[in-house]
Design brief:
Helix content: 40-55%
Number of strands: 12
Bound molecules: zinc ion
Distance between the termini: 19 Å
Largest sheet: 5 strands, mixed
CATH topology of the largest domain: Nucleotidyltransferase, domain 5
CATH architecture of the largest domain: 2-Layer Sandwich
Strand content: 15-25%
Structural class: alpha/beta
Shape: elongated
CATH class of the largest domain: Alpha Beta
Number of helices: 13
Order of helices and strands: HHHHEEEEEHEHEHEEEHHHHEHEH
């Protein structure tokens, strides 16, 4: 990684880091207070005139900021008005990348956190994580080109990674070779588990403080938000819902356990279960559609899946008392066929203390929560966007 840093940044590391901090300060003030004069910028950033001049000159050269005409001067004032500085609106402020299992996505957000452009693509399930990053880098380049977006004013880049249990707080080691991304942008990079990032995106959209975000896809995992903070655990392994035991006499799992939820409800295992029941579906979408159409085997399978999921979710609910539980991933397309039995399973819990207020829903995001969450994580860390959910380092 040191090699990559030197390659993409000709300045010695410390100097480059200081310069980057100054840049972020300038971009932060401009994004927070809007276009302003050099003099105001000097005051707001606390940078010396010489330093500010060098930083601004570079940002102008890279089209990260632009010069604008000030509002017309009031009556009685004369002289040529000094031009003011503003963020280039065609410059993304944060980039989010999701290196998912079976898919990639990328998303640019502006300084308010609104999505400017996003795209995704399907990939092979067994694609190596470094290969995923290369493909995602190409996706970012084509997305930027298609929307005329500059990468020069990026405050930061967030990367969500599946199945690697990356823990940014526990280890200095990067879980993926980030050199291709650093060649695109000098912006600082944050990474985390993509389901945790998706949970943060969901929470920031719906202003949740206590959320259980359950992702049901090729793997099963959950993001746990407690009091507005995402749980990572001591070694970054928090949220492995897929390896909760739902049947001690069940089949062995690669994790060393037995009867893990994922051994039944991963996409692969569900399709195998359907085949055992005499019905073959080409993919999960075919099954969920058949279930909504009332096809008996599909409906039975949905009820079976909901029963197993209910065992795990009921235990988690007893432990965490979330305000909201949301389902995401391909299986969430079952909608009420999953939600209704889950509600019944939770209603069966009778704590004498008080009535439980947990609500259940399908995720507010149709798709793209991972990359949006990653962009939001970068923006919350380095930008001025309101960040109700704490994430990142
Ligand atoms: Zn397991």
């Amino acid at each position: 990684m040191e090699e990559g840093l030197r390659m993409t940044n000709p300045e010695p590391g410390v100097l480059a880091a200081v310069r980057r901090q100054h840049e972020l300060r300038v971009l932060g003030v401009l994004s927070e207070s809007g276009p302003t004069s050099r003099k105001n910028l000097e005051h707001a950033t606390g940078l010396s005139r010489t330093t500010l001049s060098a930083i601004v000159g570079d940002l102008l050269r890279r089209s990260a900021v632009i010069e604008l005409d000030p509002a017309p001067a009031g009556p009685g004032l004369s002289g040529r008005p000094t031009r003011i500085l503003g963020i280039n609106p065609s410059s993304g402020s944060a980039l989010g990348i999701n290196l998912g299992r079976g898919h990639l996505s990328a998303c640019f957000v502006d300084y308010s956190g609104a999505i400017i452009a996003s795209d995704s693509e399907l990939i092979a399930l067994d694609l190596d994580v470094n290969e995923k990053l290369l493909r995602a880098t190409a996706l970012v380049q084509s997305l930027a080109a298609a929307h005329g977006l500059s990468l020069n004013a990026l405050l930061g880049v967030g990367v969500g990674i599946s199945s690697m249990h990356p823990d940014p707080q526990a280890s200095g080691q990067e879980p993926v070779d980030l050199a291709p991304l650093r060649a695109l942008s000098t912006a600082p990079i944050l990474w985390d588990h993509n389901i945790r990032i998706s949970a943060m995106a969901e929470a920031s959209r719906c202003l949740d403080q206590d959320l259980l975000y359950v992702s049901l896809s090729h793997g099963i995992s959950c993001g746990i938000l407690v009091g507005g903070t995402i749980a990572r655990g001591g070694a970054g392994l928090a949220g492995e819902l897929g390896h909760m035991c739902v049947d001690p006499d069940g089949p062995e799992c690669w994790c060393g356990g037995r009867g893990c939820l994922e051994r039944y409800l991963s996409i692969q295992n569900l399709l195998a279960e359907a085949a055992r029941r005499g019905r073959s579906y080409s993919d999960i979408a075919e099954w969920t559609t058949a279930a909504h159409d009332g096809e008996p085997v599909a409906v039975e399978l949905a009820a079976w899946a909901a029963e197993l999921l209910g065992r795990a979710v009921a235990n988690l609910t007893m432990l965490l008392d979330p305000q909201r539980i949301v389902l995401a991933g391909e299986l969430a397309a079952l909608g009420e066929l999953l939600l209704e039995p889950l509600r019944r399973s939770l209603a069966g819990q009778r704590l004498d203390i008080r009535e439980r207020r947990t609500t259940l829903a399908v995720s507010a995001f149709a798709a793209g929560a991972g990359s949006y969450g990653a962009a939001h994580m970068a923006l919350s860390r380095w930008g001025s966007a309101a960040a109700p959910v704490s994430g990142g380092r």
